[in-house]
Every structure is written in structure tokens, then in C-alpha cells.
Batch of 2 targets.
Target 1
Amino acid sequence: MSPPMLIPCPHCGGLNRIPAQRLGDNPVCGRCKHTLLPAAPFELNQASFASQLQGDLPLLVDVWADWCGPCKAFAPTFAQAAHQLQGRVRLGKLDSEANRQLAGQLGVRSIPSLILFRGGAEVARQSGALPLPQLLAWLAGQGI
Ligand SMILES: [Zn+2]
């Protein structure tokens, strides 16, 4: 038996313990009953970011803004990645206009930016959008 994985709920932030072999069974949050590992990206903000950084699955953040054409063009690709990688990596979107302070703390200079966190620390960053095959290859290079 592998030890349980710690997974923060994207809805309420509650930290859940899920056996690794159950990750593919669409686990729900013990507190709010929302799905823990949605097949679509979830919204991040200044308040939720610290809790969403926790846990045992990596977190991929898409930093975007409403005025950014390339960001909007990339959104469907990011959503497809969330679908394909469900249960292996958590995908969150950070609106850099609504969360300027956090985007600044993360050192975001251009958008879209993709930042991969593991164990609460940044492990990789990609500036600019990627087509889905390249995005998946980039993540595979990070062990995802
Ligand atoms: Zn919850």
C-alpha cells in the first residue's frame, strides 16, 4: 500500500488524503463534496494560491489576462491538457489583472506564462503559449 496523497480541494481549499490508487476514481472533497481533481482548469487567486500550492500532485499555473489575445487562444489547449492529465497534475488559471500582486510576486513578465510547481516550489517555467503536443512533451520532460 502506498501512503495517501495529500490533495487540496480546488473549491474550498480543504486538504484531503486520497490513496494513490484512487486518484483515477474521480475523488470528491471530504469537506465540500466537490470533485477534487476536475478534468478542467480551476481558477486561482491571491487568497487560494497558498493552499493550492500544497499537496503531493504538481500544480501547473496558466497566467493570463482578459486583454491578451494569445492567452485566449491558448485557453482551449490548456483545457485539453487538464482533461488529458487529470489525476496526474492539477491545472489552475491565474488572472494576472485581478491578481496583480501575486503575478508580481511570481515574477511574471509576459503572458501567457506557464509555471509548474511541485512541493510548493517552482520547478519549471515557460513563457508563451505552446501547442498541445509541445505542452505535453514539456510536462513529460518534468516527469508528468
Ligand atoms: Zn472542498
Note: The pocket of zinc ion is lined by residues 9, 11-12, 14, 29, 31-32, 34 (CB under 6 Å).
Target 2
Amino acid sequence: MWMEMPVWKMHTPQGIFHGRGSIRSLKTVVEDEKIARPFLVLDPAVEKTGFGGEIKNILENVQSFYWTGFTSDPTLTQVERGAVAFREVDADGLIAVGGGSAIDAAKMIAQKTGFPLLAAVPTTCGTGAECSPVAMIKDEKKVKKIAFRDPRFIPKWVILDAEGLTSLDRAFVAATALDTLSHVMETHLSQKSTGLVRVSTRGSLVSLGKNLAPAIFDQDPGALEVLLDVAFTARLLYPGTGLSIIHALAHPLGAYTGLHHGMAVALLTPPSLEFNLPFCGELMREIDDLLNVKSQQAKGTGAWVHRIVAESGMGTHIEQKLKKEEVPLDKIVNQAMESSNLPSNPRPVCGPKDLREVLERACACRHIF
Ligand SMILES: [Fe+2]
């Protein structure tokens, strides 16, 4: 029997280089696209690593410009400055190297400079920004993260080389990995999810169950590479399905407190799953099974996420950012109520009270990590 499914669509990069050493394909991209003056939006932390040095070596015979003038959660002011710098050096192509902040900043610089060619090299294992048509940019005056959407934000070329991942701090590997886990789970549970989407999310959940802990706690290179791959495929899928209250709340929580996006997601995941459970019990049990959380001695996925947060050293970062008196719960909830992710949440959100309860429970956990 046919089941009624929502119509779903996806946009993809035109070309993808994948595998260890694929960073050397950057030269091919620059040559094939006839970029004479590439403008690299480069994560300052990556610039100091061997991977950053390798990129500079690859482009040593090209007149390249390196711009690092952005922070985690890039702002409208920063991307405006980036666009000015791009024009000043008369650059003719954009290459983003870094996590979601670098890639989203490059997307907005592209928008402000007539959409020159954009290529992306992700160096974290969790954002998937390299294949998303969305750029999250902070409006510092309104204290709000704005989701800019445009299919032209999807980089034409993506290079997925796990060599770039190996120098990350454990708490940040955990944060980006749990963000990816959340993307996959929210996509799987979404009211707008489809059979095609769930074929992929099921495989991703099995891969995450096997590789999440070794990537975080052992920095296992093979496991990190799997996370990079899952982050990429998950982000390809979910713009068509929407996410859930986890991301609806995580964006304003990050905007108001400065908490890292992946940490905000990790903190919100257990109480959000619990909130949704009565409306997606069967799918949630399937997620528990696919992740094989029983083998991790966890009662369920929420408990497993909670333990990873506690054991990965994320607690110190969360405690620093979320001092109780400085978390404006009502403002965060009001922004979350406007999120485009609410309609896809498995359980209908009846009003601000629902979100406030989830947020309060998440924030209450910060003391026990
Ligand atoms: Fe996310």
C-alpha cells in the first residue's frame, strides 16, 4: 500500500573530492575553475596546524589571500568586513577552510560579492555546512542568529579530507559529533521525513553508534573520518525535512549566551527527546536500536548523550557560559517560537510553556556535569 509522503527536494555540490590526501585536489579546483586570486576564509586555529600549512604549500604559486577576521558564530559586521577585504584585493574565488563559522562566513561574503565560485574544506566533524544552502550569521544588535537561505550557498566544490580533523580538542570533537548525531536523529524523527531520507538516516545512525565514542575518546582517525562523512550526508538531507525543538532552542541559546552550537545542542538533546517521546515512541526505539545504546550501558539515547557530555569535558565550557542569572529564558523561548524548525518537530508545540520547560530542564543539567 502506498503511504502518503511529503514532496522533498535536495540541492548538492557539483563536485566532491573525498579521502585522505584529497586536499591536494584544491590545486585542481583552482586551475580548472581558472581562479587567479583565491580568497581563503580560513579558521585561525587551522592556520596554525600542519593542514593549514599544507594548504598554503598547495597554493604557493597562486596569488592567494588569507582572511581570518571572524569569530565562532560570525556576525553581520564581520562578513561585511570580509566582503570589503575580498573586493580590495580584487579576488575572484572563495575557498572556506574550517568549521561552520568559516564556511557560513564565506557564504555571506559570496552573497555580498556577486556569488563568485565557492569551494569548502570542512575541518570539524559536525556541521555539514559545506553542503547546506543555509548560512547562520549573528545579528549582534538584535542578539539573534539569522538563517540566511539560498541554493547558491552550496559550494560548487567540497573537499572532504579527514587529515584536517586530527588536531581538535576532545570537548569540541564531542560537541560537533553530538551536533551531527542530533541532525541525523531530528531528520529521522521529522514530521516531514520521507522513506528516501530514512534509508540514509538509518545507515548514519548505525555508523554513529559504532564510531561516536572512539572518535571522541580515542581520537581514532577512522572514526573521525566516519563522522565527517555522516555530517556531510546528514546536512544534504535535512534542509528538506526541517529539524526539531533541539535546533529551534539551540540557536537562540547560543546567540544569548555565547555557548558553542554543538554544546547547546548536546545540552538540549535529552530533555527534547523526552518531550517528543509520546509522539514518536516507535521511531525513538528504532534510533536506540540502530545506535545500539544498550551496548554502551545506556538506558536510551538521551542518557547516552548525557553521559558523553559529562565525560568529554564539555561541562566546564557549559558552566562558564550558562551562569543562571545570565540565561534570559523568556527571550530564548520567544525567539525559538519563531523557528522554522517547529513545524517538523514530532510533537506539536502548543506554546512557549512547552519550550520553556525543555529549556529549564536542559539548563538545570549544567551543574551536574
Ligand atoms: Fe546543528
Note: Strands lie at 15-18, 38-42, 65-67, 93-98, 117-122, 134-139, 144-149, 157-160.
